[in-house]
Amino acid sequence: MRPSIIVHGGAGTIPPEMLEAHRQGTLRAVEAGWQVLVEGGSALDAVEQAIVIMEDDETFDAGRGSFLNAEGQVELDAGFMDGSRLLVGAVAAVQFIKNPIRLARAVMEKSDHVLLVAQGAIRFAQKMGFPLCELTDLAVPREFERWLRLLYERAYPAQPAMAQVTGTVGCVALDRNGHIAAGTSTGGTPNKMPGRVGDVPMVGSGFYADDEYGGTSCTGWGESIAKVNLARLALHYLQQTGDPQVATQAAIQVLADKVNGLGGIILLTPDGRPGWHYNTPHMAYAYRTAGMDCAIAVV
Ligand code: ASP
Fold first, then answer.
1. SS3 at position 240
2. What is the mean pLDDT of residues 85-112?
3. How does strand 76-82 pair with strand 87-94?
4. How many CB atoms lie within 10 A of CB 239?
5. Which residues sit with their C-beta closer than 6 Å to ligand 1?
6. 168 in catalytic set
7. What average pLDDT does the segment 16-44 reach?
8. Any idea what the CATH number is for the domain that residue 247 is in?
9. Residue 118 φ/ψ region, left for φ over 0, alpha for ψ in the -120 to 50 degree band, beta for the rest
10. Can you give the pLDDT at residue 1?
11. Comparing C-alpha atoms, which of 187, 202, 207 is closest to residue 12?
């Protein structure tokens, strides 16, 4: 089996001055994940590695750089899946964790559960030896300013609701043993209600992996993505059509038609062919498959 990897850095509207940072960030992530795979590492390690790089890159709405919620806090969601054993781990509304994708993986590998939230997830993190960080390790000045702007706009009648923004991160990888893993990590949407959880930690909506069917990671308006189980839906179309581009396109069509949704998907087939599709102005994504000399990144 030949390795393959695809990552995304969010679907939405990326401001012109941030396009290059999204391109570079996804490129760095995909090349790091690729390195893990060519050295014989597992798809799980490649996904974790690629996502940690984007969580640490404040360009993205995941880990450092995440949007703040309505109370000025950062609440993070992440989901992880091992397609060889159908193991799932996810965390939702967690604070003070630098790399929630690592915590999601720990839930998958070291607990009997698939999803831990809020205080319980933080207590589990401490038990697992994860250091807790400060709010200022996650919230950058750009996002404090956005938060203040939104407060002001609400006080002095309102701009229309937040323009579409972006920056959730995700990855799907296939390793030499034919195993697929998928993960997604996000700070959610700007100014979200405290406790709001989107599609990202919901298995089948924000992420899915099954060695037999392929793997997916999603991004976009979480409330719409969750309603159609977008990640699993794309794999259903892949089973029907065998074509990764047709499958992602069909799933996004359902998202748009049924719930007026907005979003994007990345996908790998069980033999490592990549697919992607989105109905937002932009989606940052990058991929590398066997036979390519370097990764391609597109915004
Ligand atoms: N899907 C994420 C959420 O709703 C946001 C995004 O992908 O930009 O939390």
1. helix
2. 98
3. antiparallel
4. 11
5. 10, 12, 61, 166, 168, 186, 188-189, 198-200, 219-220, 222, 225
6. yes
7. 97
8. 3.60.20.30
9. left
10. 75
11. 187
Q: Does residue 99 contact residue 55 with C-beta atoms inside 8 Å?
A: yes
Q: Looking at the 3D structure of the chain, how many domains does it have?
A: 1
* 100 contacts 124 by C-beta, under 8 angstroms: no
Choosing from 168, 186, 269, 289, the catalytic residue is 168
For residue 161, the model assigns a pLDDT of 45
Its domain, for residue 154, covers 4-298
What contacts 24+ positions apart, CB below 8 Å, involve 254-257? Answer: 254/228, 255/220, 255/224, 255/225, 255/228, 255/230, 255/279
Which one of 168, 169, 184 would you pick to mutate in the ligand 1 pocket, going by the greatest count of ligand atoms within 8 A of its CB?
Answer: 168
Q: Is the pLDDT of residue 157 over 80?
A: no
pLDDT at 97: 98
Q: Using one digit for the tens of pLDDT, what is the confidence trace for 101-133?
A: 999 999 999 999 999 999 999 999 999 999 999
